[in-house]
Queue: 2 jobs
Job 1
Amino acid sequence: MGHLLAALLSIIGIGQLPAEPLKAPQPRAMTLRQAAGQHMVFAYDGLVPPQDLRRRIARGEAAGVILFARNVGSTAQVRATMRSLQQIRRPRGFKAPLIVMADQEGGGVRRIPGAPVRAAADVDTVSQARSDGRAAARTLLRAGVNVNLAAVADVARPGAALEAERRTYGRTSYDVTRLASAFAAGLRAGRVLATPKHFPGFGASDVNTDAAPARIESSLDTLRAVDEPPFAALIADGVPAVMVSTAVYPALDEQPAALSPLWVRGELRRHLRFRGVAVSDDLGTPAVAPFGSNGRRAALAVQAGIDIPLFAGSYRAGVEAFHGIVAAARSAHLDLGVLRDKARRVLRMRARLAR
């Protein structure tokens, strides 16, 4: 697979970069609440962030925010709101830019009004994909968004939910690898960080995990040969973050991938040698509802190796998740040293946003 990846990267015109900067400002000391907070990217309702969120940012207890259509009145409004959050004074060591995430895939999945209008399913060439990535970056930067939860790196199968939603680049590893990598390269050229999704691959599911639990029965050999190569190429190119699916992949584990050490610490980190930030898909959906409260799901995800467990539904859900991580550390279910190390990984990603 190494020769194929090298050839594809050469075709796309992108070189290899480290997954993280070698040096980044770090806090001299980090409280438990700050360590837990650096795992949290908070959602909220409406156009105005809660005052409690502003206070969390001021204490160094939040890594950033994630935006949805409910937060967007206009590009100018979002830009002004994000600027006000970025300007909040924070403790020494936590002054790197806040993460501001959004899904700007193109087509029907665009949180900020504007480009790219073209859906992934309508992209035919590397040039188009790279152009769409640049266009997405321009749209996002105008709104103060610095991390795109894209590109979609899933290899579709007949009947796939994501293919029906026109969110996939194709049905072969080769096509998805070259087009998703080109989209990510366009984002990078536009100074927006990419977060390809949904590892280890969600193209074989006929249901979206936002709506129901999903189970993908592919063998590990198939997942590695068909679904993982686009992620391997993007990791080789130095993407700073990868989103992990909440589907169940019994080839390795009966737990959803985002709650599974075998998938996150094993397959993503050891097998694919990913050194960046692991982000979960939304942990507030039916896909993970059987796994307990928001706090318990967050703790399970962090124990599995996730750095940012996402809760898209509400600010309250994120707060509950935060308290779940704190409680797990206090009860020794989470090692505080490991929690701090993972928080520093998120801070290194935040430091990249200042470039």
Note: The chain has one domain: 32-352.
Job 2
Amino acid sequence: MRDVRFLSLMTGLAIAVGGCSQRVAYMSYPTAGSPYASPGVDSVVYGTGGPYVPAPAAAAYRPPYAAPVAPVPVAMASAPAAPPPVAPPPVAPVIAPVSYAGPRYAPVAAVPPVVAAPYALAATANPGEYTLDSGDRLRIVVFGQEGLTNAYLVDAGGLIDMPLIGLVHARGASTDELAARISAKLRDGYIREPHVAVEVEAYRPFFILGEVTAPGQYPYVANMTAETAVAIAGGFSPRAFRRNLIVNRNYNGHPVRMTVPLTFPLRPGDTVSVQERWF
């Protein structure tokens, strides 16, 4: 009984070893270029093998297929573009002098432009000779005629009233023009050769309005300027615009409005307006 068990054990062991040798033989296949195949373990154990049988020649080794790689084009740096041609500057055409067969004329000098001053009307409204108007007090002397020599006031109508000759128009006239008018009337049936002299005894007042301390009417002072008029009226108020003034003047019965500086000379009867400062 013991022998039977031992024999069964050995048989099973042989079978197991044979199965493993078959797997080993299967995995131990000849490599490329080997002329013989390796014998299995069963052939050795059981004697079923024989001499080595040449194995079929292995196929030549080929590497795995790889698709050809197309060469990558290399971008070559192109040469920089040439700058556009620069056009040469225009050349002024040369004009040949033209000769004229006729007479030659001398060139006329250019007249400089006339630039108007801010108070350009002052030249028109400020004549060299003083003209009379309402409010002027005159001293009229008729030589040899004490009854006619006296002080006369130019009234609101611009007239003076004298004995014998009556009313004489004085507005807009100078002292010499008024003396000639009086002489013409006296010569007409009163005095054969009259000699008349006229002078201003008191000028008519001026007026100042606007931003001054005491606006109103003031007697005219000889050689007065706009700044002097402001000083007579007590000076500027705190809100006065002190750079320019507005002057209104009557010239030959026509009103003239001017923007003048402080140094502008005034005339009797002028109205000075001091503007308000807004900033």
Note: Residues 2-27 form the longest helix (26 residues).
